[in-house]
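Sharing a chain and its predicted structure for anyone who wants a worked example. Both blocks are below, sequence first, tokens second.
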Amino acid sequence: MDTDWQSRTKYSEGGSQDSRQVCPPWKGWSSNYTKGVEQIRHYRPEILVQEDCAGHRSRRCPRIQRLLDQIRTRAVEAGVKSRSVSLEQVRRVFLTFGAEAKHQIAQAIAGQLPELAQHLPRFRKPWMSEDYRMAIFDAVAQAPTYFCSRPLRSRETPAPLSS
């Protein structure tokens, strides 16, 4: 059975209009939570960096905000530090690399991580919808933003060696 995710419609093997049924909007959403928690258990990260959904430029719907909050809560319970990065912070950090637009940010990431270059979508025209692969670059952009935004640790000058 195939699923058309944009319209939440399932088609049986025949694919005729008569054989389709509308998926309830809650079906499968709990699996995203389960997958997130399983990945935290499997990879055991030191820190979880997520998009700050509370930011004024965030366009995440309340359902996704709740999902991210639940995953963050489980991560903290598992002893993983959690940080949020706003879209404004991402843009400010990548502005130092000369990347202003979202596609330029993706190009900067692909330039630094050649293994992602093959996944870089072509430039989007205003009438085109965003390529799903852009989510890869949105997620990866949060790591350098976190590392560039956190305060530097002060180094103590080492004591001189006595002879």
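Comments welcome. Residues 1-27 have pLDDT under 50 and may be disordered.
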